[in-house]
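Page 42, continued from yesterday. The earlier attempt failed because a stray header line got pasted into the input along with the sequence. Redoing it now with the clean sequence only.
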Amino acid sequence: METIFLTKSQARKIIINAAGLARKAQFGVGVEAVYRVIDHLSFIQLDTNYVVERAHHHVMAARIPDYQTEWLAELCEDGRIFEYFTSDAGYLPSCDFRYSLPVKEAFANNRKSITPAETRMMKVVLDRVEREGPLMVSDFEDDRLEVSTGWWDWRPAKVALERLYLEGQLMISRTKAFQKIYTLPFNLVSLEMNVNMPTKKEFARYIIRRTLSALGIAYVKELTWRARRVKGNLVKMELEKMVADGEVQIVMVDTLKSAPLYMLSDQDMDIELSNEVFILSPFDILNVFRHRLKDFFDFNYQIECFVPAAKRKFGYFSLPVLFGDIFIGRMDTKADRKQKVLIVHNLNFEPIELDRITIEKFTQALKEFVLFNQCRDIIFKKSNNETYMDAIRKGFSE
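This time it went through. Structure tokens are written below.
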């Protein structure tokens, strides 16, 4: 099949549309829209950071205007989605459950050798969940022999629970406070669900199709990301076959000299963007692969919560701001939930000219973001463009 040649603008439209950000409510509204987003993207990353509303809720609110945070839990309780740690922790549609099995098998087969005491602990923990029903870490006595040395220094019962979860012997749900509840799979997996282990070919093709559906256009390194824990996976081999069969298309993007790019051959090429403004999570599907932002959007982005404070340029938790097919800035912000105030520590605009309508759309997006974070007011501390800030402040005063 011949290579498809695209302009950067065409490529950006395909990527944004695949991410579900071509227009507001691209997947509709209500709880069914939440399921449609997860089914389309196939993976919504969870994150515990609570500076603003957690990432998985933020992803949904950016796409679903009437989003309610309890809807994810409802879909879990209904058995339509489930949580698992594939490439990262995230929500997946339950129709894809069988494709989590190779990852669980990989965790079981590739783990480091464990001691007899650890093996016994796993058995004790599993026996208790089987006898008593769903349990939390707090239901187990503090069995730590030494004082904790830090955040990831888990006590033995916690380690056992997490191993059982990763290996598929337990699954998890969440409390309203986002704490994990460990339970047996049959409590969350429908009897009608396909739980047969996929072949290596099926697993590889699932990864390719799902990833290209969510990303629109991708490099091999993104296509292999979600399969990286499964050693000897056939993603690269099956990708070549799918290109030869015409299901996947090789793409070249002008001015972009890079490794080969791929997209599904039935990809819609006639895409119009509504040119809305979206305030996005750092863990949004559009942002998780930073090199793509640089290659396709000329946006050099890094989440700086992992950077030492003295070396941060834009702030601890900087949120990318998308307008149409360009990133217009980033916003370091924190929700003060006691005072009901959204504090914008730093609003940094990219060096591009924004017209009045764009600023008005951004102001409206900010107003919606304030409410989404259960705040009533907003405080701006710093910006690199006072002209834009004056217009935004005026918009909030009206």
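Notes: Confidence is low (pLDDT under 50) at residues 147-152.
Reminder to self: strip header lines before submitting.
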